[in-house]
Amino acid sequence: MQRLDSVLLAKPFRILAFTVVCLLLLLAGWAASLRWVEARARTVSEEAAVQTAHAQAGLLSSELQKYRLLPLVLTEYPDVAAILEDDQPDSALRLNPKLETLAQRTNAAVIYIIRLDGRTIAASNWRLPTSFVGRDYSYRPYVREALRNGAAELYALGAVSGRPGLFIAQRVTRNGRALGVIVVKVEFQDLETVWARRAGPTFVTDENGVIIITSRPEWRFHTSRLLAAPALARLRATRQYDDHSLSPLHFPMAERGTLSVADGWQPRYFPVAVPFDMKGAELHYLQPMEPALDAARTTARVTVVAGVAVIALILAFLLRVREKALLQTRVRAELEREVALRTAELTEANALLHKESREREQANQRLQSARDELAQANRLGYIGQITSSVAHEINQPVAAIRTFAENAREFLARSRPAQVLSNLDIIIDLTERIGSITAELRSFSRRGTRRVEPVPINDVVGGALLLIGDHLRASGITLKRVGHDLAVHVIADRCRLEQVLINLMQNAAEALEGSVEPCIILSTTAVDRTVIVEVADNGPGIPAALRDEIFQPFITGRADGLGLGLSIARDIAREFGGDVILAQSSADGTIFRLRLAQA
């Protein structure tokens, strides 16, 4: 130790040289850390921006899907066609309150019905001073396009309310003849409020680059790029955005492709744009880079401080050998402070992760709710198709009840009580049958809660046939049932399982239209703790081009089909731990196989 002290005292230039080298290394490390901070912040910001943009686009798409189903369902509503065909004021007075209630329950801004000449005859806002009833919308592009193509969508300013929104139009037809258009207007204030809680701005541009939905209201009806003169003239002619200037927003480019927005405290953003299922539209999200830069700078500072501490230790060892113990104590205290700081940062990051997890769970719940709404709409659609069949099933026992009641009165007049009691027993049985039919229909239409439990498969099949059987017979279809004596239970929700069976049988019935001797075979078997239900028809089969994607939403071989029935059926079956597959399809017919877990 004494020798080392003497060397340091005799050759102090070595300490000076060592100090200069250390300073140069520190400068080089600091320059490298600055480059690393920028690269790290870009990477983190890009990952966060892409994730957030896709999540927000998915949420917006799910909301749009819910509203797109609404006009499709309403076109099948008998009162809509009736008011368009007879155009009587009394019909409008009856329909206006129904549209008003439906708009309140679905959070639609307005629902209204337009004749072929463009004049509105019924609307959900009929009570308001800004009512659409009696107004002419023939000049609106979405009206003309819906009458021409069957459906149309347009984001525009309301001609009466002056409020922006998405107009979803659907043509109403009966027997191949167009009667008018039903329009649902959707506004996005609630969604924009949710977006505004995000750290960065979110906005949607249409096919022309016009900002239509945004968390920054002052950006609305500006453009993300300079509009070409023909596009600007077209928008002016249709008054899609009224008299707004449609001037471009200027986002000055900062270094390496980031954006600079003058909003006071977040000067730099990382931009991401993702498309979604709205014609030509893109969702844009600007991720603030300052949080990522702060985190990266903190990490760089910790690294540099650690390097300084090491060099300081070496210098202190060379210059203050005798004070080694004291120096180690000071370094230990410094390191503990840095560890405490890092621990606090990690705690805050963990809290943010928990918050994001909760938000993701809420998004999943909204997605599940949208799927439930779609399944409910599917059930209600089938109810409209089988109502006449159920009425026929009820009319038969009602007619028989009347006959037996009249006979009982005659037997009573003739003092023949035995025959009276016999007729009354028959009447009781017939009323129980009517009760079972109405109970089955009420259970099928009710939204209800999810109750997955053991249910007898024969009861479920019988309930489905009770609802759709007469519809099949009225269509001239022969129904054969195999395995009706199979007394097993399956794990399922009874109402939703009936919906799966009705979907499959309705799909088979539609495939048999035009067949010479239409026939459906419904078979039930149990194999290795699995119950298999097959629905087979002798129709023309599914086109080969559609077989691999027949379960995808909106894929259908029918010109007037939505392509949702099989998709909904498979989703429901998989929720029970089962599945629906296409077992066979050829020119001789098609077989769909439903697999369920035996209880």
Short précis:
The chain is 54% helix and 18% strand.
Structure report:
The chain has about 600 residues and is of the alpha+beta class. Among the domains are: about 75-185, PAS domain (Beta-Lactamase, 2-Layer Sandwich), CATH 3.30.450.20; about 450-595, Heat Shock Protein 90 (2-Layer Sandwich), CATH 3.30.565. It contains 13 helices and 17 strands. The protein has helices at about 1-10, 10-75, 80-85, 90-105, 140-150, 190-195, 230-240, 290-320, 325-415, 415-445, 455-475, 495-510, 565-575; strands at about 110-115, 120-125, 150-155, 165-175, 175-185, 200-205, 210-215, 260, 270-275, 280-290, 455, 480, 490, 520-525, 530-535, 580-585, 590-595. The strands form four sheets. Strands 2-1-5-4-3 form a five-stranded antiparallel β-sheet, sandwiched between helices. It has a five-stranded antiparallel β-sheet with strand order 7-6-10-9-8. Strands 12-14-15-17-16 form a five-stranded mixed β-sheet. β16 and β17 form a beta hairpin. The longest helix is centred in the middle third of the chain and has 90 residues, at about 325-415.
Count of DSSP H/I helices: 13
CATH topology name of one domain: Heat Shock Protein 90
Cα-atom Rg, whole angstroms?
36 Å
> What is the correct CATH architecture of one domain?
2-Layer Sandwich
CATH class of one domain reads Alpha Beta
Approximate helicity band: 40-55%
**What characterizes the major β-sheet?**
5 strands, antiparallel
Mean pLDDT: 81
CATH superfamily of one domain: Histidine kinase-like ATPase, C-terminal domain
Work out the strand percent: 15-25%
Global shape: extended
Neighbour order of strands in the largest sheet: 2-1-5-4-3
Low-confidence stretches: none
Structural class by helix and strand composition? alpha+beta
